[in-house]
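Q: My labmate handed me this sequence with no annotations at all. I'd like to see what the chain might look like in three dimensions before we decide whether it's worth expressing. Could you predict it?
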Amino acid sequence: MSEVVFLLVPKLHLLDLAGAAQVFSTAADVLSDSGASPDYRLRYVADEPEVATAQGLSVNAETMWPQLGTDDLVMVPGWRSPGTAGGPRLSASQARNLFEHHRRGGTVASVCSGAFALGQAGLLDGRRCTTHHDLQEELARRFPDAAVIRDVLYTEDDRVITSAGIASGIDLALHLVAVRHGPALAAKVAREMVVYARRNGDDPQASAMLRHRSHLSDTVHRVQDRIDAQFTKALPLPELAAASGVSQRTLTRRFAEATGLTPLRYQSLLRLERAEHLIGQGATVESAARAVGFADARMLRRLRAGAAA
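A: Here is what I predict for the chain of 309 residues:
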């Protein structure tokens, strides 16, 4: 059985910890239900027996570092205020244990600002890494020998694995389960967790649904809600305008002011993004095009060519 050890620091984010822990816990349950070895044992270590989280709930931890082998994983969840002034630093023993586990052939991983802990342990120098998009510049500044990769969900370089913000820890953990047990088991775990899709590491951190949502127009947000939910269907402009209670001309103007796009272009981006995910999972261009609502693959090919230009 592999040990999955979570190294906890003060003010850690609960979802950074709980999301990844749930993946390994569910994987153990799925394996056990199938008659196989559970294969994962979760442990939590810290300098103190009780660690306060950023959300106000304290969690218990062991204070003795366990004996680990090369098949074992140490993961560092992220925490609030990772900047130079406010972020916690690993103790000398924590940094040494992290470094030595990797040196002996073990795997280390981080979620969100947990990458700063790997940097403090000297594990990012000369390696590809990532973190939450708001923290990437700070990570690159503090660890100039690291190769910080922007706008990806997770990176893997010589048994050093880093993921982006918060929920991407679930993607990282599912990836590790897939590497060890195959994509079918990872997909079953994702299904048990009601995770919409198991994303690849090079998927962007901010989807089209998020990139164009920073405006303050209620009308446009309502139209985007409708498009987000039904982007595989034909959504004529008159229908969208009627549902939002404004004229077609007003909707087009407000949508462009808020997002820089037309409603049709926004819908096309959602279709393209979903199609790229399906293709990355092994679908053909033709089947992906049909799945996202295109009559055939010609429009999808044009969109893909335009995005690559």
